[in-house]
Amino acid sequence: MRRDVELLQRCARGDVAGAVRLYWFAPACLSLGRLQSMADVNMSACAHDGVDVVRRPSGGRAVLHDGEVTYAVVCRVNDPDLGGDVLDACSRIHQHVARGLAVLGVATVPRARGREERRDAVQGAGVADCFAHPAAHELLDAHGHKLVGSAQARLGQAMLQHGSVMLDPPHAARYLRSAVAGPAGCGVGQLAGRGVSRQELVQALASGFQQGLGSRLTTPLDTTL
User: Fold this and answer.
1) Which of 51, 75, 101, 118 makes an SS bond possible with 106, Cβ 3.0 to 4.6 Å?
2) What is the CATH number of the domain that holds 183?
3) Measuring CA to CA, which residue among 56, 69, 64 is closest to residue 24?
4) Which residues form the domain of 41?
């Protein structure tokens, strides 16, 4: 994620138009949102299981990076393919993610933008686990469970969006204090009806971005726009 911050800073300076990165964590890692309290974390449980704890530069709530793939998108806020205000940018980026998941036979639907957006945001902020509460435009599976989380940070006229795409059902609650249990979710593997490796998920997500961004991508995975 340090690399993501460097790319955000470069984009804010005008050195690059943006970047798309796809990666995963080893060992497992619990990342907290930029303003989230460390009091949410059960440090003893993390230490017992060898789970690292870091703070993301982006917002949102805690994500357990274990059995998942993380994407990072950096761009100018006025980028025609990826930018916009917070919710519009999330919607545009997740269109690319949804195309990638469709390559694996996994259908998703974006959570509708509700009338009570402020109340929805306040409720989400009170939940320690990112996957216990979907926000507007985040991708849900056919059963209404959150499959892809997202969080943003902005610097000048540049933005960074992080997202976590679950291969396995989310299970961050065991590492959080007073976690509110969310609905039992599914991962990409379960929805696809077969084993899906991290590398296969990376390739599928890369395909989704490639279909949408075309020649703007200079390499298929970790790339500068």
Assistant:
1) 101
2) 3.30.930.10
3) 69
4) 2-224
How far, in Å, CA of 204 to CA of 101, rounded? 6
Distance CA 92, CA 4 (A): 19
Question: 46, 75, 130, 186: which one is catalytic?
Answer: 130
Query: In the prediction, which pLDDT does 222 show?
Result: 57
SS (H, E, C) the chain: CHHHHHHHHHHHHCCCCEEEEEECCCCCEEEECCCCCHHHECHHHHHHHCCEEEECCCCCCEEEECCEEEEEEEEECCCCCCCCCHHHHHHHHHHHHHHHHHHCCCCCEECCCCCCHHHHHHHHHCCCEHHHCCCCCCEECCCCCECEEEEEEEECCEEEEEEEEECCCCCHHHHECCCCCCCCCCCHHHHHCCCCCHHHHHHHHHHHHHHHHHHHCCCCCCEEC
Using a cut of 0.85, tell me whether the model's pTM lies above it.
yes
For residue 204, give both structure tokens.
Answer: 């599928």
State how many domains the chain has: 1
Mark whether 130 is an active-site residue.
Answer: yes
